[in-house]
Design brief:
The chain is an alpha/beta fold and about 240 residues long. It is built from 8 helices and 12 strands. α4 packs across α8. The radius of gyration is 19 Å and the shape is elongated. The two termini are about 20 Å apart.
Length: about 240
């Protein structure tokens, strides 16, 4: 059996596990299994690499950056981003890829309008790094919003009407609002949102977070992370299955 999987911490809720299980059934893929490897420390990944029939695995929070020292090579995208969400085992080499950037770009681009020139990015973790990369590729300037003061970042307290109106894309890369804490929301001045704004939340559970609900209430376009997850998963599958080419 070809073995695939997901590494992360406290990931019993995994989207990937159910997605690939369903994919294998629907596409009559009978020679593959997809397992969840819940690691309390990144060092435990060495045992995963020893698994029989391992072709590759996905990487989620909090190991997208921590996995890098355990790899032999990085794809150009993963190198530029500085984060890995897909690992391929090829000819004994461990190669890191980033398919989050593919998923984000192809789910965001259809929503963009001419006035979408500047973005606010909430959060600065491993997931956000793929978002920065794609915004750069699309020539969309962005500012990071942090809870604490960091040079060249905004804090949530600094956000005012002028900043909100001039940054018409807002991407939530933080975990705030994820199930089960669905009443939580990033502390934005939502009253300054309007129909020109596009709110994108990497969270997919719940489908409409409080962040997105606030945008919807003010006439903004909204998008959750579900399509991005599907696109990045399919891109990972393509990488794993084209590895001999």
């Amino acid at each position: 059996m070809r073995q695939f999987g997901l590494i992360g911490r406290n990931i019993s809720y995994s989207f990937s596990k159910s997605y690939f299980a369903e994919k294998f059934i629907n596409e009559n893929i009978v020679d593959a299994v997809y397992n969840v490897f819940d690691l309390q420390h990144i060092d435990e990944v060495e045992k995963i690499f020893e698994a029989e029939g391992l072709i590759g695995f996905n990487v989620t929070i909090p190991y997208k950056q921590e996995i890098i020292p355990f790899l032999d090579e990085l794809s150009p995208e993963a190198k530029a981003i500085g984060a890995v969400n897909t690992v391929l085992i090829k000819e004994g080499k461990r190669i890191g890829h980033n398919t989050d950037c593919y998923g984000f770009q192809h789910s965001l681009q259809p929503l963009l309008e001419q006035h979408h020139k500047k973005a606010l990015v909430l959060g600065n973790g491993g997931a956000a790094k793929a978002i920065f990369y794609i915004l750069d590729q699309l020539n969309i300037t962005y500012k990071i919003v942090s809870r604490t003061k960091i040079k060249n970042h905004f804090t949530y307290d600094e956000l005012n009407e002028e900043i909100m109106h001039s940054h018409q894309i807002i991407v939530n890369c933080s975990p705030v609002g994820t199930f089960p804490n669905i009443e939580n929301e990033p502390l934005l001045p939502y009253q300054f949102l309007n129909e020109n704004h596009l709110l994108y939340d990497l969270i997919y559970n719940p489908a409409v977070t409080k962040f997105l609900e606030n945008g919807q209430h003010n006439g903004s376009k909204i998008k959750n992370g579900h399509e991005m997850l599907i696109l990045q998963a399919e891109k990972a599958w393509e990488i794993w299955n084209n590895h001999t080419k």
